Amino acid sequence: MHLLLIEDNPDLVENISDFSGPRPQPRFRVQRLRGLGFALENDYDAVILDLMLPGLDGLEVCARLRAANRTVPVLMLTAATAWTTSSRLRQRR
Fold first, then answer.
1. CA–CA dist 47, 41 (Å, integer)
2. Contact assessment for residue 65 and residue 38, using Cβ atoms and an 8 Å cutoff
3. Higher pLDDT, 77 or 82
4. Which of 8, 24, 65, 87 is most buried by its number of CB atoms within 10 A?
5. How far is residue 38's CA from residue 47's CA, in Å, rounded to a whole number?
6. Residue 75 gets which letter from DSSP?
7. By percentage, how much of the chain surpasses pLDDT 90?
8. From CA 28, how far away is CA 92, in angstroms rounded?
9. Count of beta carbons in the 10 Å neighbourhood of residue 37
C-alpha cells in the first residue's frame, strides 16, 4: 500500500507510521507544505490529510485535488474539537 501522509505534527507522523504494527508496513510519503504537489504528481492508494495545516489547510488541499480530477481516497484527521471543525466547515460553504 502506497500512502501519502500530509501532517505538520512530527509526533502524529510517528504515531501514524507506528500504527500498522509488526505486519508489513505501508509505504508512507510524509510531506508538510509540499503535500499537495506530491498528491497531484504521483499515484497513491490513499492520502491521510491533516485538516488544520498551516498555510494551505486540508480542506483546500482536498478541494484542489478534486478540481484536478484526482479521485484518490482522502482520510482527514484533526485534533480540533467538534465545534471548531463544524464552524470552519460551515464558513467554507
1. 13
2. no
3. 77
4. 65
5. 10
6. E
7. 23
8. 29
9. 10
Instruction: Give percent of the chain above pLDDT 70.
Output: 71
- 7 and 1 in contact (C-beta within 8 Å)? no
* CATH assignment of the domain containing 31: 3.40.50.2300
Residue with cell 497513491: 44
Which amino acid would we find at residue 55? Answer: G
Mark residue 55 as left, alpha or beta (left: phi above 0; alpha: psi -120 to 50; beta: remaining).
left
pTM, to two decimals: 0.76
* Residue numbers of the domain that contains 69: 2-92
Rounded (10°) CA dihedral 78, 80, 81, 85? -80
Provide the grid cell at 19. 500504527
Domain count, the chain: 1
